[in-house]
Amino acid sequence: MTEHRRIAARFPDGLDCLLDDLVVRVGDVRHAVVLSGDGATVSASRGLNRRDAEQLAAVASGFHGLAVGAARGRARGAARQTMVAMEAGNLFVVAAGEGSYLAVLSAATADPALIASETARLVERVEEHLRAHPRLPETPAAPA
After folding, report:
1. How confident is the model over 56-102, as pLDDT tens digits?
2. Bridge partners of 29?
3. How far apart are CA 81 and CA 7, in angstroms?
4. Nearest by Cα to 12 from 33, 43, 56
5. Are 28 and 107 in contact (CB under 8 A)?
6. Strands 89-95 and 100-107, sheet pairing
């Protein structure tokens, strides 16, 4: 079983619902994705097709990876949050527990402090799920 499937399996109540709630509650949030450490999509908010969710997860993973490398290279500690301001919107990436990250795409007019606050609240909820649902054991491959 791949890492992103193990992470997804720990959310029986539906992580998608948490992401959808963020998009609905915070008007300037367009999309949200939870991704594994290797950039695989674990869950996505409504309105993102699979291809777009995977692309957002890959981009978020890449940007956050660059931030982690920059922090390590300058002995500045760990990268906690990555924000990329673009003409059409902002991308926020934050660690969301054991080997997972939350990526949020907002409108360009969004208040970065509000988005950071709301993503922090969502990360707390995701981490509660991670603690409440222990990691599933690896299933050995069936003999051929």
Report:
1. 999 999 988 888 888 777 666 777 788 899 999 999 999 887 788 99
2. 106
3. 21
4. 43
5. yes
6. antiparallel
